[in-house]
Amino acid sequence: MSDEMAADFALSAVREDGAWSVVPLPPAAADDLDQIIHALRQQPGDAGSIGLLSFSEDFFVVLRIRGGDVRMLLSDVTAAFDAPFAGQVLDRLGLPMPDGDDEDDIEPAGDLDLLEDLGASPLLMAELCDDLELFPDDAFGQIAEHLGFSDQYDAAMQLVA
To answer: Cα separation of 146 and 26, whole Å?
Structure first.
């Protein structure tokens, strides 16, 4: 993957016995979708593991791994034109490349409801994807607030900054 579209950071969020843990994942794990899925599977929790990946402060990917179930949300399908990781997500979702790459073509792909049972509604996820001025770390901050791990998220972000 080119440095231009390499992950800014990748975090894993896991809830065990009601307590959340948020830790940075090795940057190399975010070079390939299969690698990040493997890394997240190593950290199962009560509700599976959640991966939060930011790319070029431009788009984000949220993954949720529960046993053999892999759910994904890509914030911007047009990212696949420049970012191989986004293309891998579209491939895994069985979706074609978007028709265009201008602002009118920007839309999320995947499961907007992947975190609904934990407190992040599909409407919230859609709003985060639609806000073109919102940086991924700020979107993740809102997700963390809704899921109840804001403090752990803030601490993990200090480690990746």
So the answer is: 25
Instruction: Encode burial over 4-43: b for 16+ CB neighbours within 10 A, e otherwise.
Output: ebbbbbbbbbbbeeeebebeebeeebbbebeebbebbeeb
Q: What is the pLDDT of residue 67?
A: 85
Q: Domain span at residue 109?
A: 3-160
Question: What gap in Å lies between CA 64 and CA 76, rounded to an integer?
Answer: 18
Q: Tell me: the pLDDT tens digits for 134-145?
A: 999 999 999 999
Give residues with Cβ within 8 angstroms of 23, minimum separation 6.
11, 12, 43, 156
Mapping DSSP to helix (H, G, I), strand (E, B) and coil, where does residue 29 land?
helix
Beta strands in 17-117 (DSSP E): 19-24, 49-55, 59-66, 69-74, 109-110
**Torsion sign over Cα 85, 87, 108, 36:** negative
pLDDT < 50: residue spans in the chain:
1-3
